[in-house]
Amino acid sequence: MLKITRKLAGLAGLVLLLSIAAMESSQAEVIIQATPDNGLQPRITVDDDGTVHLLYFKKRLRAPSAREGNLYYRQYLPEQRRFGTPIKVSSQAYDLRTFSIARAGMAVDGEGRVHVIWYLPKKSQFFYSRSNPQRNRFEPQMAMVSQFGEGIDAGADIAAFGSRVAVVWAAGDLSREFERTVFTRISADNGASFGDELQISNPDLGACACCSLAADFTDSSSLQVAYRSAIGGIGRHMQLLAVDFNESEAIGVSYGPVNPLQEWEVSFCPLSTNDIALDVNSQQWLVFETMSRIIQINLQDPHRPKAVAEPFTRTRQKNPTIAFNRRNEHLIAWGEAISHARGGRLNIRLFNAGGELEDYLPPEEITIPNFSFPAAAGLANGDFLVLY
What we know:
Blueprint: E1 2-8, E2 14-21, E3 27-33, E4 40-46, E5 52-59, E6 68-77, E7 82-83, E8 87-88, E9 94-95, E10 105-108, E11 114-120, E12 125-130, E13 142-143, E14 157-161, E15 164-171, E16 181-187, E17 198-199, E18 214-219, E19 222-228, E20 238-246, E21 249-255, E22 275-278, E23 284-290, E24 293-298, E25 306-307, E26 317-324, E27 330-336, E28 345-351, E29 357-358, E30 375-378, E31 384-387
């Protein structure tokens, strides 16, 4: 049975604590909170030590533009159930693009450094910064693309493993999506320097101009990239690209199968996002949108994707996030009935360690702020945290 309780959590405001019965005697709580500082577009990463890292955009007070602000980083304090002191990431304020596809990306390397990539539409450029190992300051931002920046129209993603860091993006002529491709730059020294801009995807598949992508290392020399193609301008299927590296050179590229649940033929741009997370067995899981429904897939078993849930009403499901706890239970959250600016209604599903669905909805309607989306993490004590 599902047990629901409420309580106040200090300055964090109203927190909904949702307990679900687990196979063990202990129970996992799902903590649902608004993003701190009235922040937007939260991104959460959990490192190998179980530390939870938060990146978000915060508007400046009395700024010239209604959406001008900066990126901030915070670390979760589990005993206090709140996030610590905010640390500014971006060196210069910028206008947040309203589309969720332009969101920033974050990764943590083996030294504990936080690496961040974000998109400035007006400059058609990605900017990068990294923290020191203590994570109490970030280096001045630097531009990342000089050669393959034509037609950048969505955010990049960033991944880290040990000392290796990868930035991944899509680019090419916006009027010829069927020829666009995916590029990367690789660092082998914790982001101190990056190699050349490398084309890594098959140009025959194209790349959807206004769909975001997701990337993560499987080990120090292999990178998985999930992106949406644009075959013939309409074949916007979810492609699973694997890239092998030697230092900062790509030495092998392969593609996973495309299941019918990954196929989406449409002439318009879906403005979709996706998310990758690791389970306790270090297997990668991907959540994404196909034909307005959220799909999940274990990338080590790519022949068996499955739909997550029916929507509240016959509306579009978008912007999914996935997280695992230490018992290998997992949570998927997303927004419904949204537009490019409207955040929509929060929806959540929980799955036990066997992958079976716990039929769960938030106990009351929760509205995601405009221009934003949810983020989720498995906490070190086995609980889940969801921000919106």
